[in-house]
Design goal:
The chain is α+β, with helices and mostly antiparallel strands. The chain contains 15 helices and 13 strands. Strands 1, 2, 3, 4, 5, 6, 7, 8, 9, 10, 11, 12 and 13 form a 13-stranded antiparallel sheet that branches.
Length: about 500
Amino acid sequence: MMHVNTDYTEPTYGNWRIPQRAGIGRLSGLATVLLFVTIIITIFVMRLAGIIPGLVIGVILALFLGSFALKDKHGMTLMERLSERLIFMLAKFRKLNIFRSGPLGATPTNEFRLPGVASSAVTYEGTDSVGRPFALIHLPAVSIFSVSMAVEPDGAAMVDQADVDQWVANWGGFLAELGREVGLVGASVTVETSPGSGIRLRREIESSMSDTASPIASQMLAEAAQTYPSGVSETRAWVTLSFSAAARAGMRRRTPDEMLRDLSSKVVFWCSHLEATGAGTATPMVAGEIGQIVRAAYDPAAARLLDQAAYAGEPLTIDLSSAGPSTAVVEWSHYKHDSGVSVCWTMSEAPRGAVFSNVFARLLEPHAMIGRKRVSLLYRPVDSALTAAMVEQDQNTARTRLTSTRNGSARLSAELDAANATAADEARGAGLSYVGLAVCATVEDPAEMVDAVAVVEQELAPSSRIMLRRAWGAHDAVFAATLPLGVVLGRHTVLPESVKSAL
């Protein structure tokens, strides 16, 4: 009798790495160049002025070099941290950290415009190939068009692990397909958890009640509608794809009408592909839906009013031109906006080693200490025509860094092994993507922010095996990047490098 092996081993995932530039040992390419410049200048001064002046100049240059070479646990150098602080202090001195809109603002039409990197957002309406309406968000300041799709993931509870593994594989295939999309500059997946008012649950219960139901069943549903909402939380998710107006570098920028025609035929494909990844039903988002999400994010107190209006049968349609906050102030450590206070983080280090598919479960789940939380995975798929050259260069860089060290090191050797593994995956048809992660926690009571920050930094981040760095002085930009607006952080040159590196 033939023996069939029924043992199942849950797959693991890993090998996230940042492409490195060749340098001596663990030094970057820039630090290596500065090292040689320091040595040359020191020797030159010694020959002209003597040993003592040469040593003094050498020490000064060494300290300057250290500000570029020595990095903290987040990979930030001293010079980068100082430049971040100086840029923010200059902006605060010029009062550029304060935003006001509406009748008290500076907008000529008294509209409640969006602040910061999303201030130029304009909405256009189109229909996909099956007649469903969808919104096209245009950011003229950076020439980006974006489409968002609402998803309703069922979660992994009561689902066979083999099915979950298939979802993950399909998601990898979806990302690989995005690498073949012409003009794609970014993609994001956002999961938002917020305290539920109970109104939506009550509406769902009342709509499902039948006139012919038994009195006992009707009474139980009525009691559930009144008692259960007190501790309910709501979870919603969406996927945003962002495209450059120019399909290729040097080409003519496409108009909004041209983008609507180009993307209308692709929305159906994206939605069907997303449904195969465990995302549940995927539907394109319309302008009013996006406006409600943005409005509730900047003014959490308004979320209850929006739910009440929907329950009364008079849902509010909010355009992006009126979805912004009336007042927003960016501080170094936090972000104040209408009725909310937010703190944002970006991922400075991806999970080390191998992880399972549920590694982000704790981070994505609702938490009692955080009123409103958004977690966005940020992707920048690499053009499939460039992947082979990138992995080859990464291999050569890792090999150079290892051989430039006299006795080598375990860390550099592991980097070379990871580069070789990436090259092998690419040779088998896998796509490449730059991956980032942004987290935004919002509370209505400022006194609750201390606990919320502690929960994110000391509980949620370690449980997900990632390292988060607070978006010092740039919370507003990361805040906007977690909304369905198509904000691609790397396209905004005025942002700090630590924020731009989060994609």
